[in-house]
Amino acid sequence: MEAYQILWIISLIIGVVVIGVVAFLLHKIKTTAGKIDVVAGKIWTQGKLTANNTIQIPLFLSVTNKVVGKIYDSAVKIIGGSATIKDHADGCPGCPACVLNHHK
User: Are 51 and 58 within 8 A, CB to CB?
Assistant: First the structure.
């Protein structure tokens, strides 16, 4: 075999090895890109679900604020009523009788 034939065969072998390495690396890139695509899709879905949940917060917050306002008003009335009862009980020596006679 002559030198140019040996050189040609060596070049072909090197080319086949390089093509094999490139094919392997391209396959790894494709596999990794597929995994990234799946994970990115999951992140996108969760992001949309989170956005859908958080957009409703102002609606529920206004309802919550109204309920809290009513609870606060009731609490203020209860505090006022209990202060009146305490003041009466402090100044009335026969308070139980007073209460019982008042309801008759």
Answer: no
pLDDT at 83: 85
Q: At CA 36, angle to CA 31 and CA 39, rounded to 5?
A: 130
Q: With contact defined as beta carbons under 8 Å apart, do 95 and 88 qualify?
A: yes
Q: What are phi and psi of 64, to 5 degrees?
A: -60, -45
- Compute the distance between CA of residue 53 and CA of residue 42 in angstroms, rounded to an integer: 17
Alpha-carbon gap, residue 93 to 86, rounded angstroms: 12
- Please tell me the distance from the alpha carbon of residue 57 to that of residue 62, in angstroms, as a whole number: 9
- The pTM assigned to this predicted structure is 0.48
